[in-house]
Amino acid sequence: MSLKKFSRDLDAFFSFKATPVRSTGARRGTLFLFSAGVVVLCLGAILFFTGGTSAGDSALIPACSIFSNEGEYLSHIRENVEFEGMRLDIITMRRGDNFWKVARKYGVDIDTLIGANPWWGNLLAHVEQEIVVPSRKGALHFVAGLDELDRLAADHKTSREDILVQRLPFFRKHFPRLFDDGKPIAVFLKDARPTAAHMTAELARQFTVREMFRSPLGGRFSSFFGNRVHPIFHRWKFHDGLDIAARYGTPVGAPCEGRVIAAGWMGGYGKAVVISHPKGYKTLCGHLSRINVREGQYVPAGKIIGRVGSTGFSTGPHLHFSLWKDGRPIDPMKVLW
Q1: CATH class of 220-336
Q2: How would you label 229-268 residue by residue, b for 16+ Cβ within 10 Å and e otherwise?
Q3: pLDDT at residue 21, as a whole number
Q4: Coil, strand, or helix at residue 213?
Q5: pLDDT in tens, 255-288
Q6: Quick check: 220 and 316 in contact, CB under 8 A?
Q7: Residues 257, 301: contact at Cβ < 8 Å?
């Protein structure tokens, strides 16, 4: 509809002359219908000229730029955000708790907690700390308008149906330009991971490194990076990696793309594979029962490089996983979480 035609229709409507009637009831009925028509036409005009928000008018909004502090963020979640089909619980950390323990208890993962708690500067929990815990895996975001959902789905390579939108008042949902209360809209992307752009700078640096790597296998962490009593020599000794207990023969994948720089017997590590990765990183997977790659071979992330065993100085089937950055050993938990 053109603006000129709309104006002609509007003029025609207001130039309408009703046939005089003597009945008071009929006159009232005509006045009511006329008034209702004016209201409907005016609403139509407003909707015609304002329309919905155009694509690109709104954007994903980092929570840290919306709320002045974590307390204000938590209050907003409590008072304004509710989803259909999932919960956002706010819990208080107690002595002995950590974020991984909470994630397991609620059936989610550490990524989900990171996405729902944008003020975290690190992954060290403290007593009486309040955190947001979604009831399912995914990423919590905020948008300025519902027209942003298609772009959000494309950015995260997911479908529109996998984005949950918080419950909204009827008019805010269907007539956003007329009834915009200025509050951001919470959306939840099912099974998505958070992005560094929506974290504190400190945590984003750690997360960016983590995105390079993947766990070489699933299993139980049986011994961590740092000083410990050696299980064979029974003396205090530095452990330069992470032990992941798994069944004998479990496939071991490359933790990141790279080139194999050593593959074979390596003393206490037994059968092992060393891979050089981008940005100065290097990994070792030891105590293997079988090696599936050769020196000089390029391997993509996830490629099977061997099988879990108990070769070398080992008390049972597990994977020893070491990580170096520019020649210095670092804690693998910094990238595996």
Answers
A1: mainly beta
A2: eeeeeeeeeebbbbbbebeeebbbbbbbebebeebeebee
A3: 46
A4: coil
A5: 999 999 999 999 999 999 999 999 999 999 999 9
A6: no
A7: yes
**Dist CA 162 CA 255 (whole Å):** 29
Q: What angle do CA 245, 194, 169 make, to 5 degrees?
A: 130
161-203 pLDDT, tens digit per residue, is: 999 999 988 766 777 666 566 788 999 999 988 888 888 888 8
Q: How many of the other CB atoms lie within 10 Å of CB of 215?
A: 16
pLDDT digits (tens, 9 = 90+) for 192-225: 888 888 888 888 888 888 888 988 998 888 888 8
Q: Write down the H helix ranges in the chain.
A: 3-14, 24-50, 63-66, 70-80, 99-106, 110-116, 149-155, 170-174, 201-210, 333-336
Q: Are 245 and 316 in contact (CB under 8 A)?
A: yes
Phi, psi of 299 (to 5 degrees): -130, 135
Ramachandran angles phi, psi of 336, nearest 5°: -95, -35
Task: Name residue 5's amino acid.
Answer: K
Tell me, what DSSP letter sits at residue 121?
S
CB 308 within 8 A of CB 290: no
Give pTM, 2 decimals. Answer: 0.62
Residue for token digits 């008018």? 57
Three-state secondary structure call for residue 6? helix
